[in-house]
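Sample pair:
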Amino acid sequence: MAKSNGGGTGAPMPIRCAIYTRKSTDEGLNQDFNSLDAQRDAGEAYIRSQTGEGWTLLPDKYDDGGFTGANMERPALRRLMSDIQAKKVDCVVVYKVDRLSRSIRDFGRIMEILEKHGSTFVSVTQQFNTTSSLGRLTLNILLSFAQFEREIISERTRDKQILARKRGKWTGGHLPLGYDLADGCLIVNEEEAARVRQIFEWYLEGQTVFGIVTKCGDLGWLNKQWATKEGKMFGGHPMRKCHIYTMLANPLYAARIRADGEIVAAAHPRIIDDNAFDLVQQKLKENTRNPGGGHRAKLDALLRGLLYCACCGSAMSPSYSSSKNRRYRYYVCLRAMQKKGDGCTTRAVSAPVVEEAVVESVRRFAMTPEVVEATARVARQRLIEELSRRREELKATNVRVRNSKSQIARARNSGAEREAALRDAIAQGEAKAETLRAAVVQGERMRFDDRMVRQHLLTFDDLWKVMTVEEQARLLRQIIERVGYDARGDKVKITYNSSGISEFCKGAAK
C-alpha cells in the first residue's frame, strides 16, 4: 500500500490516514474514556505500526457518537467524504467494517468515492485488501453479516416493545396531552387532563372539530410540549384539527394501549371513562360515514399520508377546487395553510403532476437491476418449492393408483359396486397424475432469468391501469416510506421502504 516517492531512494511517500469512529447510541459517551476513544486508540496503534510504510495520522477527528450505521446521515461521515473528495485523505482507518456502515448499498457508495479519489480503506480487526476480487468478496460477506445483525437487533427491539405493550406498558413515542412521564411510566397531569376531558365533552355535546379548535385557540390551549433527554423541545403549538382527531381516537386516555393490532388494558391511569370513550369512537365512525356529519368524503389521493413539504417538514394534505363542472385536485402544505404561508414558501402543488412523477419513479424503480435480480431470485426459489411440492404430490398419487390396481382382483369377490369404485379411483388418479406430470415438465423448462423478469415487469403500466385507486395507494404505501416535495426547485424526492421492496419483489414474482 506504500507509495514510492519516485526519487530513487525507495522511501515511501506519506499516506495521510484519517480514523473514523462511530457508536449507535449516546450511552456512555460522557465518560472519560468511551467507545469512540477505544476505537481511536486502536486505529492510532495500527497507524504507528505502519510508520515504516509512510503512514501518518491526520489531526482531524471524525467521530459520530449516537448515530446509526444503517444510513449515511452522519455529520462526521459527511465531513470525511468531503475531505476525501478534496484529496486531503489517502486512507480511512476504522476499528471494524460495521463502524463505517451496516448497509451493503451505502458501503458500496463509500467505496466508489474512495476508489474515484485514490483513497484506500483499512479495518484494524479484519485484515483484507480491497484492491483484489477476493478482498472485495470478503468485505461483502462481512457487510452482509453486519446488515443481518442490524436487522436482527431491530426485530428483537420491536418484539420486546410488542411484549411490553401487551403487558400494558407504554413504550415511548409522542407524549399525549394530559400525561407526563416519570421513570418511563405515564402519570396524569391534572391541568392538562381537565382540558382533555373538556374536549371530549364538547365533541359529545355535538361540537364540530373545527369548532373545538376555535374554542382551544380562544382559551390559548396548546398541544403537548415536552423535552427529550437531549433537551430538544417538541410540541407547544396551537391546536389543529389533526391534534383533536388524534386525541379523540387515542385509546391511551381510556387506559388502553395498542399492541400488535390488538387493544389491551394499559398499566397507566385513565383520564376518560370507558363509556365516554366508546361513545366518542362510535360518533367518529358515524360522522365519517355521514356526509352531513361535518366530515368531507375522502378524495382520491394516491399520496395521502406519504407526501410532505421539504421546505418546512409538514404533511401535505389533499384538497380540491371546483370550476363549473370540473374539479382541480392538489396537495397543500398544512403549515402554510395554518399560518397563512408565514415561514413556508410552499403553497400547493397539482395532484396529477406530483402523483405522475411518483408513479414514473416507481416505474423506473421496478426496472432497476437490483429489483429485477431480487424478483428473479424469488421467482426461482418459488419455482423450486412448487416443483418439489408437485413431485411429492405426483409420487403420492402414483402410490394410490398402484394400491387401487392391486385391490382390483380381490374386489371381484366383493361385488361389482366395489370394483367400479376402484376403477373410478384409478381413472381419476391417472388423470391427476398426468396433469401433475405435465406441470412438472413445464416447470422444469421454465427459466427465471433477469431478461424474462424484466419483460414481465414491463407490463407494470397495464396492471396499474386496471387497479383501483385504493389498490394503487396501497402499493405505493408498501414500497415508499415518504415523498418530499420541494417547491423551491419543483422537485420530488422519494424515500423507499426496504422491507416493502422485499414484499414487492415477492408479489412481482408470482
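Residues 290-298, 504-509 have pLDDT under 50 and may be disordered.
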